[in-house]
Amino acid sequence: MTRKIRKAILPVAGFGTRVLPATKAVPKEMLAVFDRPAIQYVVDEARAAGIEHIVFVTGRNKSAIEDYFDVAYELEESLRAKSKTALIEDLRPTRLEAGAASFVRQQEPKGLGHAVWCARDIIGDEPFALLLPDMIMLPDANAPGCLEAMIAAHAAHGGNIIGVNAVAPEFAHLYGIVAVGAKKDIGFEISGMVEKPPAGTAPSNLYINGRYVLQPEIFDILATQERGAGGEIQITDGMRKLMSWQPFHGVEFQGRVYDCGDKIGYLRATAALAMANAAYGADAVAALQDELAIAARHRPA
Ligand code: G1P
Hints:
Layout: E1 7-11, E2 32-33, E3 36-37, H1 38-48, E4 53-58, H2 63-68, H3 73-81, H4 85-91, E5 101-105, H5 112-117, H6 120-123, E6 128-131, E7 135-139, H7 146-157, E8 160-166, E9 176-183, E10 188-195, E11 206-214, H8 218-222, H9 235-242, E12 248-252, E13 255-259, H10 263-275, H11 281-298
Parallel strand pairs: 1-4, 1-6, 4-5, 8-12
Antiparallel strand pairs: 2-3, 6-11, 7-13, 8-11, 9-10, 10-12
Helix pairs in contact: 10-11
């Protein structure tokens, strides 16, 4: 019997330097992707996969995230007084149940591995999910969410599970890349991994898409605080060490992944999530087609 994955870590301490000036005074996770903050999509994905408790690893200037998932008492009372029930309903996913979230600070930007390690006491001795909020997942029609599919793989294989997607060779140096071992009914064995490989050296075309199911032994490895790529404590390096005695499987996500860590990725996410929105999708497609036609007319020759 594998243990249920109950808790998830969401590291939200980053500065968002690649989206400045938008992120000067607003956490990047709070920038709206169409009609809700980017982080809402990631929290929804976690909850749909059965996650019961979310650990946000925050930093200074990130208190808007904590407020967003709290009860907005005055706002809700005022909407109630005006009988704006549809708007009250829209706020429902923004509430986390009492006691279902923790906030811990990463005091210095020492890397993703260090951010994860900051949550060790709250996670304790059980396997957990890790979701990087820069990455927003849009499943194909009828496909499960990325984390949901990975938790199913964990129930089948145990051990550690990494979400992957295909990447064009020219972008491989921006991500962690896995090496592919034996294929399984669900997913495949991972036989190696490397963080941000120099151009032309990636072991496959499958990149780590920002979703993980990890065993708690990773914390002991991260505690050694060894620096890797970019002088940072890397989760990929920690996982590579853990691989020498625990199994890792990869699961390819059936859908689109939007990397909101840079301006064009963020733009794509905004357009895609607007077009995928149940209420506004058709209008969004029409508006974007209009804008494209207009832009084509005005672009300098
Ligand atoms: C991190 C991980 C990397 C992964 C990526 C996905 O990199 O270290 O392995 O592929 O997230 O977004 P970062 O984006 O923090 O540089």
